[in-house]
Amino acid sequence: ETQGGAKRMFAEEDDVEFTGCCTPQALTFILPSRGWHTLPIGVLSGAFLALSTHFLSPAVAAPALPGGEGLAAVGWLVVCLAAYSLNARPPPELNSYRSEEAPQGLACASRALHAALVMLWGLLLGDGAPPRALLAALPLLWAAGTLPQADVLLEYFLEQALVHLHGGPCAASPLRLGCLLALAWVALGAAWALEEYAGRGAALAWAAACGFVLSGDLCP
């Protein structure tokens, strides 16, 4: 209640009041606990920071882009934003259609994944300025909500593998996608075993039957 005794009926639900900068409440808000996610997130964070240090080191950056100190400085800013999103509290994403405010699960690593893919492009292909310029532009792309989150990207590639490699239908949910992929891989293993022990004819018949089942809408 306020000093006048009236209740704050119109206070926003996400209001947080701190009594100090270094209080346990403030530290918990800045660096929330991740529970069992702490270990895998720590491993991912270490690998991401090692990749970033190598990519943005002067020994690698100078030959790829002479005079690119400005892009390197912005690149470190991008790394800090991605690392904070991975290790502490990921911000709400514009392209996330979820009930919760902040990304959960694999989506927490989205910004680190975007930065890592750009840096791997620069290291493996050695294209010089384009990957470093794209790395510097990532904050603008994040703010505009134009990049897919990590879980969405993974589901997309798995669904494309299901459709184009196994002949299955598009999945309406992650659970359905997982079930269809599991059935497809079991069918693939069974077809290989039939070809080894019963001949190619039996394997082709089994593959045709499984392809018919997977291409229809028979799975829950």
Could you explain how this protein is built, in words?
It is a single chain. The protein is an all-alpha fold. Helices cover 63% and strands 0% of the residues. The protein has 9 helices and no strands. 18% of the residues are buried. Residues 1-7 have low confidence and may be disordered.
What share of the residues does DSSP label as strand, in percent?
under 5%
Strand pairing plus helix content: what structural class? mainly alpha
Task: Estimate the mean pLDDT confidence.
Answer: 77
Number of helices: 9
Number of structurally distinct domains: 2
Helix content range:
55-70%
Query: What integer value in Å does the Rg equal?
Result: 24 Å
Distance between the termini: 52 Å
Order of helices and strands: HHHHHHHHH
Shape: extended
Note poorly predicted spans: 1-7
Number of strands: 0
Largest sheet: none
